[in-house]
């Protein structure tokens, strides 16, 4: 092969290589959700949208490829001082999306780093006006303030901040220990209060139940007593009506009375038995019913006016008539009254009137004038 042919082949290869490179640089395919910034001779030319584009080789040059999807960036913990001089570490998460690729490329060198630093400074300003308790309980408020400041600052960068979240707030270890003790004490206090409320309600319900039970028991006893009294009243009325319908005479009533006397005296604690005064009348009625003299049945003894000795009514002798005994008792009472009056006058030294002899007993001596 001659040297001229070799040179020709080399030239053809260089031409083919140059044409391929030119075609590769002239054709640009942009993926979906992506934008390409194109510069012509060092100056901004246009923004390529998704699709097939043709560039001028060696004149147009792609500057940057911008991803238009929403991006999530988590920043490392940042120490922040609260208003009560406590240092807390806060992790933040930023959700943002580029809306203007040209501004995102030309307005800031690195918009992710800019967002991070802007988040740290804004977070320190917001947390510096809150104490630790407010910081722990006001996450929504802090997120809203951060989003407002970041969205306003990153708008000229062609970035829209959608959400800002505080991923973690870590106070110092000593503060965490104190907070845990405080929470434990608070929970113990609530548990004690709930237990006391339960005991109180239980006691109230128990007292109400006892009250209702006592009321119902008292009402039952009252009703039982009323019903018992009504039953006894009806029984007495029925017995009374039966006695009247049977036309019971005093003899039968006296006999029933005597049958009840042993039951009255029955009892282990009885030391003395008092005989009712109606016993003589009952005995007289029974004696008369049996055909005897009522005076014989009377257990009452009297003294004889002649001998002064008490006669035994049960010695087998006939007793005197009750009318005569009554008359004799009246005469003895009159004689005793006259004797007492004479003694009183004799004691006073005056004259006494002779006391007539009634024939019962010995007349008192007459005072000598």
TrEMBL record:
Chain spans, region Disordered: 297-369
Compartments in which it is found: Membrane
Band domain residues: 25-183
SUPFAM superfamilies, per the entry: Band 7/SPFH domain (SSF117892)
GO cellular component: plasma membrane; side of membrane
Biased composition (Polar residues): 350-360
Membrane topology field: Single-pass membrane protein
UniProt keywords, alphabetically: Membrane, Transmembrane, Transmembrane helix
Alphabetized Gene3D superfamilies for the sequence: Band 7 domain (3.30.479.30)
Protein's name in the database: SPFH/Band 7/PHB domain protein
């Amino acid at each position: 092969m001659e040297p001229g042919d070799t040179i020709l082949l080399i030239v053809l290869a260089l031409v083919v290589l140059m044409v391929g490179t030119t075609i590769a640089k002239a054709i640009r395919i942009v993926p979906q959700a992506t934008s390409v910034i194109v510069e012509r001779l060092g100056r901004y030319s246009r923004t390529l949208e998704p699709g097939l584009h043709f560039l001028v080789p060696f004149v147009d040059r792609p500057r940057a490829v911008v991803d238009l999807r929403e991006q999530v960036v988590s920043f490392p913990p940042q120490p922040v001082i609260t208003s009560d001089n406590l240092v807390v570490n806060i992790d933040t998460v930023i959700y943002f999306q580029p809306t203007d690729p040209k501004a995102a490329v030309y307005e800031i060198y690195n918009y992710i780093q800019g967002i991070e630093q802007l988040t740290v400074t804004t977070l320190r300003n917001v947390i510096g006006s809150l104490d630790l308790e407010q910081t722990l309980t006001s996450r929504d408020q802090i997120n809203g303030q951060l989003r407002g400041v970041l969205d306003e600052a990153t708008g000229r960068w062609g970035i829209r901040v959608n959400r800002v979240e505080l991923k973690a707030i870590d106070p110092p270890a000593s503060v965490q220990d104190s907070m845990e003790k405080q929470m434990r004490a608070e929970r113990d206090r609530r548990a004690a209060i709930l237990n006391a409320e339960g005991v109180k309600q239980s006691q109230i319900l128990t007292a109400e139940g006892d009250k209702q039970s006592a009321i119902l028991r008292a009402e039952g006893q009252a009703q039982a007593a009323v019903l018992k009294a009504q039953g006894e009243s009806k029984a007495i009325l029925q017995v009374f009506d039966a006695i009247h319908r049977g036309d019971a005479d005093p003899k039968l009533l006296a006999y029933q009375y005597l049958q009840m006397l042993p039951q009255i005296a029955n009892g282990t604690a009885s030391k003395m038995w008092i005989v009712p005064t109606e016993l003589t009348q009952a005995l007289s009625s029974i004696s008369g019913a049996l055909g005897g003299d009522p005076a014989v049945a009377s257990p009452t003894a009297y003294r004889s006016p002649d001998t002064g000795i008490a006669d035994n009514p049960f010695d087998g002798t006939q007793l005197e008539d009750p009318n005569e005994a009554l008359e004799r008792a009246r005469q003895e009472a009159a004689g005793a009254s006259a004797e007492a009056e004479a003694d009183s006058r004799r004691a006073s030294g005056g004259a006494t009137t002779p006391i007539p002899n009634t024939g019962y007993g010995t007349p008192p001596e007459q005072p000598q004038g």
